[in-house]
Amino acid sequence: MESIPYDKRTGKIWFNGETVEWANANIHILNHGLHYASCVFEGERVYDGEIFRLEEHTERLFYSAKRMGIKVPYTQKEINDACKNIINIQNVKNGYVRPVIWRGSEMMAISAQKNKIHTAIATWEWGSYFDPKLKLKGIKLNISSWRRPNPNSIPWDTKAAGLYMICTLSKHEAEAKGFTDSLMLDHEGNIAEATGANVFFKDKSGEIHTPIPDSFLDGITRREVIKIAKSKGLKVMERKIKPEEMKDFEGCFLTGTAAEVTPVSQIDKYNFKVCGTISDLSDAYQNLVRKKTAA
Length: 295
Description:
single chain; D-amino Acid Aminotransferase, Chain A, domain 1; D-amino Acid Aminotransferase, Chain A, domain 2; 9-stranded mixed beta sheet
């Protein structure tokens, strides 16, 4: 299924309050979301037929919209209900949900005061974000030549379309060099995140270190993994981390709705072990999302 282009798939999409045929969920080429990035979205995982942390994702979607000056024409409950409804219609058991909100075509200039706000929700079956074989031995990252922008220059705490262009550029750059993903630094040169996931490190004493999310998203998965780590008695330090500190870390992993918990074996010239602590956190996260009791 994943090899089929997204515009060639079948089924239903929730579109402005109605379920429409997949092929009929169309918008005009002259819309503000496409030309000026007036668009916010979410990425949600379905496990065993249920959306993990749906309410938190919807809250973030509405926060992103508000920060972008977009008034959502639905309540959070209506969006939650629509998400649940569309996964049932599509019979998605283990997959992905993409709610998206954008400004329409009434005005085509910088100003968009009269533009209608559109909302859609699509869902599909989806497996691992990274190759499962690579995840077992850890993925490899380069260090991007692009940096997360200064927080004063963008609405950095939103999941907005325009913020991801440098992520695409970074990932393409990494893939061209044989890496799976790319580590991005912040505007001050500190470690920030990967292109679509937060990053954690484990030192030789067993403590976990992760960057302070002050120029990038504080991921929902990130917060869940911190809770899991603390429940296991691990010390988690949220702090500024310089790239050169990576030489002192033993382990590294990424977290995200798509990435889940993904071990990292290399970032640039720094190598890491896929240690038991990281495997244990990954297993515990899978137990959480699938509502299993840990052994």
